[in-house]
Amino acid sequence: MPTFHDPSADAEEARQALRGLAHATIRIDDPDVLYGVVGELLGAARSLEQSLIQLAGASLTYQGRAAHDDGDLGLGAADAWAAADALRQAAQHVSAAETVLDQAAGHLGRIAWQPPQRQWVTVVFLQGEEAEPVLDLIDRDGTVVAIEQLRGYDYGDETTNAALANGHVYDEPPRGANDRQVIAGEYALTYSHAFGNVALYRAYTPPADTPAAGDGPQRSGPAQDAATADAARRALEERRNRVRGDGSWFTPDRITDIKRNRGLER
Questions:
Q1: Would you say the C-alpha torsion 17, 18, 24, 28 has a positive or negative sign?
Q2: Average pLDDT by stretches of 10, the chain with 266 residues
Q3: Domain ranges of the chain
Q4: Are strands 169-170 and 187-192 parallel, antiparallel or unpaired?
Q5: What is the Cα–Cα distance from 238 to 235, expressed in whole angstroms?
Q6: Which DSSP category does 184 fall into?
Q7: Burial of 52 (0-12, 13-18, 19+ CB in 10 A)
């Protein structure tokens, strides 16, 4: 905390604070903070300019007490004057920095940062007998429990890559005229008792250098498409090799248990 009376302690405090800021700004996750941070730095620059001017004045005030180690007062006074002159020049440079910081703050103050574009990837789509235990679960325990169960299909990057390679990425979670939809956090559950289907989608934020697209796969060239598709195929093969229970590669263990307990195995 600043003392407001001990220049040595407050100088150390300022150095540590700027060191912390240098580390904290290595990565900025939210651009909304830029305006406030630059504004604070603008205020800090003004205080720094004032401090430099005051330090220069102190060097001149005590010029008569300046001496080298050998007691030469003339050389000491010359160095005190030179230090004061250098501090004034530093203050002028800081004043120039204030001007451009003020410009930066003005530009940032006019920006309304938009949230990152969120898209949705398919985690799983079930219909017919595969969907029946999940629809029963929705009726009995609610959509939150159903979403938790269906999360068993989500293999993270594997699921995302497979969805991108196969074009299962959407600006909004797909929903038919007779479908019901519930969005909970990063997941969207869509289901229809009339048509006997259930689908789970997960929110996906494309990398900053990925061009925006509507419904359909993200394209970045034939070579990248082939690599993505190949990775997706390998991921799906690994999932098949992890199968237990009823032998259906697209049914996670928790849904398999529900089906077995309710006598719905095929």
A1: positive
A2: 94 96 89 95 97 97 93 93 97 96 96 86 94 95 95 93 91 89 94 94 79 43 45 54 44 51 49
A3: 31-109, 119-261
A4: unpaired
A5: 5
A6: E
A7: buried
**φ and ψ at 178, to 5 degrees?**
-105, 10
pLDDT at 264: 47
pLDDT at 40: 96
| The pair of three-digit structure tokens given for residue 182, joined into one six-digit string | 């519930």
Q: Which residue type does 109 have?
A: G
Tell me which residue has tokens 């398919």.
122
**Burial call 94-115: b when 16+ CB within 10 Å, e when fewer:** beeebeebeebbeebeeeeeee
* Tokens coding 131: 């969907």
Q: Are residues 246 and 258 in contact, defined by beta-carbon separation less than 8 angstroms?
A: no
Residue-level pLDDT at 251? 47
Q: How far apart are CA 163 and CA 166, in angstroms?
A: 5
Amino acid 261: pLDDT: 54
Q: Tell me, what's the pLDDT at 215?
A: 43
Phi (first) and psi of residue 10, to 5 degrees? -70, -30
